Amino acid sequence: MGTRFDARGEAVTMVQPVSSGRLPACRVALLVTLLLPVVAATAFEQAEPPAIDVKPMLAAAREALGGETRLSGVKTFVATGRTRQIQGDNLVPIEFEISCELPDKCIRRDEIPARESGPTTIGFNGNDLIQIPIPPALPAGRIGPPPGGPPAVAGAPSGRGGAPPAQPAARRVATTKEDFARLWLGMFAASFTSLPVTFTYAGTAEAPQGQADVLEVKGPENFIARLFLFRETHLPVMLSWQGPGPGRGAGAPVENRLFYADYRASME
Fold first, then answer.
1. How confident is the model at residue 195 (pLDDT cuts 50, 70, 90)?
2. Using an 8 Å Cβ cutoff, are 93 and 84 in contact?
3. Domain over 2-266 is classified CATH 3.90.1580
4. Considering the entire predicted model, what is its pTM?
5. Does the N-terminal peptide bond of residue 103 adopt cis geometry, omega within 30 degrees of 0?
6. Which of 4, 75, 215, 244 is the most buried (most CB within 10 A)?
């Protein structure tokens, strides 16, 4: 069980590992342990990057995750789990289910058992947003992540680097795709057509547990992140990206960290 904080500074504690199905003989990241905004220090101390081809690193990561043939054969998967989120003075339990049909359809359904408001769903189908219940229209000029999005894996902003404003509906779809892409990077170490990304070598990271190779990940609309591959196992261990500080964009950008852990073999 690990505690994490989303981009708004809300604590979310995983109380049950995420289970996954329809992943034939693959290693899957069953527990996302930490999503932590930090202002300065990082979990790894990075060295300057030389010019290195990242293809062998990605190939080794995919082999560690189950192998190219098996990973390429994954077309659908379902992951279920439970979280708890601090809302005001209360620690609210949330049950969620993530369902994906790769590469361009994915939804997450959240339900709070203690409330009668019913479940909420956020996701995308191609370039169309899936959101239930349908939210009210955003005021003119307001850009932001979809309201009521998932508290940890989804709903966190990504580094933009001064991208021009998008239409609210298009921005919601793009933000939702980015949320799921962060999960997929830990599961597949690959790019998908729904949010195509490129990988370049960013350096070596040092930590008490060992060394990691750091790959810079770039995608549409200034999507930027860094993927950490543990050298000993070749498995993804962390994804980091810059986003607005707590308070929906107030203050200086902070670093968000998404940790991948508890990899287990799935024979389904």
1. very high
2. yes
3. no
4. 0.70
5. yes
6. 215
